[in-house]
Amino acid sequence: MSRIAVTFTLNGARRRVRVAPMKRLLDVLREDCALTGTKEGCGEGECGACTVLIDGRAANSCLIPAVHADGATLVTVEGLARRGGALSALQQAFVTMGGAQCGICTPGILVSAQELLLRSRGRVPGDAEVREALAGNLCRCTGYQKIVDAVRAAAREAMPARARAARRAPKARATAKARRTAKRARRAR
Ligand code: FES
Ligand code: FES
């Protein structure tokens, strides 16, 4: 069968592969690029296990012919780690907060969460927003709350120190005001 040359940037490195016309991106990543972190669950676009970032958008690689990724910038779960292989803040938050589940669903969940963090840079998405962003990633084994908490913790961590301080400021101001009011009330007695 004739093969087609496809070139893309994969986790920061330029790659060129020759693929059968309808070979799925999922299979090219796993077989031709030896990146087996991206998993196949349903193979039908339902479970999100195969999620990768294509030009910054989360996509089900089981539904996409690799030829459609020609010229694109791809990020797989392997590309989330820091240079040298250390865990990213998002990955670390999953470990610390118990958000890491099985090896089938977790890679896709991490990639979808990464897309959300890129979109919401500079603020912490609310519970509902995280749940919506992860709606295409299914796990039938356990709950999602620890995952949601881990994503929000990573977003908090990613905020610049000044923005974090500004977030705390209204609460701190309210506390100081409450203290002053209580003091005045004590004096008035
Ligand atoms: S394997 Fe692609 S969505 Fe389930
Ligand atoms: S599918 Fe991964 S823990 Fe349920």
Which ligands occur here? FE2/S2 (inorganic) cluster
Q: Mind telling me the C-alpha Rg?
A: 21 Å
Q: Give the topology string: H per helix, E per strand.
A: EEHEEEHHHHH
Number of DSSP E strands: 5
Domain 2Fe-2S ferredoxin-type: 4-80
Organism: Eiseniibacteriota bacterium
Keywords: 2Fe-2S, Iron, Iron-sulfur, Metal-binding, Oxidoreductase
Biased composition (Basic residues): 164-189
Characterization of the model:
The protein is of the alpha+beta class and 189 residues long. It has one domain: Beta-grasp domain (Ubiquitin-like (UB roll)). Helix content is 42%, strand content 13%. It contains six helices and five strands; from the N terminus they run ββαβββααααα. Strands 2-1-5-3-4 form a five-stranded mixed β-sheet, sandwiched between helices. A hairpin with a 2-residue loop joins β1 and β2. α2 crosses α5. The longest helix is centred in the last third of the chain and has 28 residues. The protein is elongated and about 90 Å long. The N and C termini lie far apart (92 Å). The model has no long low-confidence stretch (mean pLDDT 91). Bound molecules: FE2/S2 (inorganic) cluster (2 copies). The site of one FE2/S2 (inorganic) cluster has 12 residues, from loops. InterPro entries: 2Fe-2S-bd, 2Fe-2S-bd_dom_sf, 2Fe-2S_ferredoxin-like_sf, 2Fe-2S_ferredoxin-type, 2Fe2S_fd_BS, Beta-grasp_dom_sf, Diverse_Oxidoreductases. Keywords: 2Fe-2S, Iron, Iron-sulfur, Metal-binding, Oxidoreductase. This is (2Fe-2S)-binding protein. Pfam families: Fer2, Fer2_2. One of its GO terms (molecular function) is metal ion binding.
